[in-house]
């Protein structure tokens, strides 16, 4: 992930470090290249602009550290600004409230929602919790079967949803069933469509209203770049999401979604999907990601 951005930034920083002392011109030329690299990585233009302004402001305010060369100092400031851009500290899944705690997964069809439900179940189980999976997409029988298979693979119970049931009823009944089964976390895999539409949003709002989930996670495909950012904004406006799971980061060489979502929506990326296997889910740490980008 981030290969092309990393490579470009590496080039800029090598040139900056090559100078013994840095003039204002060296720095502003370097930052112009950083801005271009961000735009090529499909970072939202407003985010790229603000980013450069923040780096400049920090550079002016910084005391010169004797242990670092001027070039190293710029890299350090870029690293800190990137970390802040992605939210600063890691934000965990909200599991507060009485058991079983409902967690709602939303997103477009194909974004990786069902896979993420399985990944999250596996992760929670490894942390000592007892997850319960709920297929709440009654429009595609294949979606129900897919989640059943995922559940069987990791030995996590799955609610017996039927396509003739109402999605809100499914979620309500599933919570009762999860309680009876001694489970403490209910993962609701809701319906996705190819595009956002009012019917879908109304259904998701009804589930949110009825279940009052502790967290609502939007699963967005990192490879769709700015589309993922627009998606996050639209879902948040309609549904007030708690955070984002950015899936398919393993296939995303650019990184625009990861870098833009926080500042455009104000919502944190909580997890990233890094492969097709159910173990391929990582907690998102802005500082680690910034260091990964800067190599
Ligand atoms: P849904 O329609 O949103 O439920 O999407 P699915 O969970 O069915 O996922 C769609 C496709 O994306 C499947 O082929 C998954 O294996 C794949 N997928 C999901 N997450 C990831 C990921 O993090 N990395 C990769 N490489 N593939 C993923």
Automatic annotation (TrEMBL):
Its main location: cytoplasm. It is an enzyme of class 3 (hydrolase). The keyword Mitochondrion does not apply. Residues 268-281 form the SRP54-type proteins GTP-binding domain. GO terms for molecular function: 7S RNA binding; GTP binding; GTPase activity. It catalyses: GTP + H2O = GDP + phosphate + H(+). Keywords: Cytoplasm, GTP-binding, Hydrolase, Nucleotide-binding, Ribonucleoprotein, RNA-binding, Signal recognition particle. GO terms for biological process: SRP-dependent cotranslational protein targeting to membrane. GO terms for cellular component: signal recognition particle. GTP binds at residues 107-114, 189-193, 247-250. Transmembrane segments: none annotated. Involved in targeting and insertion of nascent membrane proteins into the cytoplasmic membrane. Binds to the hydrophobic signal sequence of the ribosome-nascent chain (RNC) as it emerges from the ribosomes. The SRP-RNC complex is then targeted to the cytoplasmic membrane where it interacts with the SRP receptor FtsY. Part of the signal recognition particle protein translocation system, which is composed of SRP and FtsY. Composed of three domains: the N-terminal N domain, which is responsible for interactions with the ribosome, the central G domain, which binds GTP, and the C-terminal M domain, which binds the RNA and the signal sequence of the RNC. Belongs to the GTP-binding SRP family. SRP54 subfamily. This is Signal recognition particle protein.
